[in-house]
Specification:
InterPro entries: UPF0145_dom_sf. This protein is mainly β and 124 residues long. Helix content is 15%, strand content 41%. Strands 1, 2, 3, 4, 5 and 6 form a 6-stranded mixed β-sheet that branches.
Length: 124
């Protein structure tokens, strides 16, 4: 039952770039230009931080910073990153535990189509 469930793609608009886990844009948009893949890996400390460090970094969101860096790696002309994939791994050291996050995606420049293409409906 769980395996047959369709998972909806994740869509988020951050600043001026659209972030999609889907490989394709919605049908009302058309890709005008596709760029080379971008990738970023960052280490996020997930172990308990000391009192002073915890206080100084209480408003810091390292996950959001990683997504922001992914957007900065895309060419300036790109207005979306599609096909985003996420990979994680953990590493434990004597004094801290880190979560390594890798984001990979394809930057594109898309435009809105004036006419939405229609696909014939095939009966099942």
């Amino acid at each position: 039952m769980f395996l047959n469930r369709k998972i909806a793609p994740y869509i988020e608009e951050r600043s001026n770039k659209l972030l999609l886990t889907a490989e394709e844009l919605p049908s009302c948009y058309r890709i005008k230009h596709m760029y080379n893949m971008v990738q970023i890996t960052r280490a996020v400390e997930i172990s308990k931080k000391g009192l002073i460090r915890g206080f100084l970094e209480r408003k810091r969101n390292e996950y959001e910073e990683t997504l922001d860096e992914l957007m900065l790696m895309a060419p300036e002309d790109a207005n979306a990153i599609i096909g985003i994939r996420v990979s994680t791994a953990t590493q434990q050291y004597a004094k801290a535990t880190y979560l390594y996050i890798t984001y990979i995606g394809t930057p594109v420049f898309y435009i809105k189509q004036h006419k939405v293409p229609t696909k014939p409906i095939n009966p099942v």
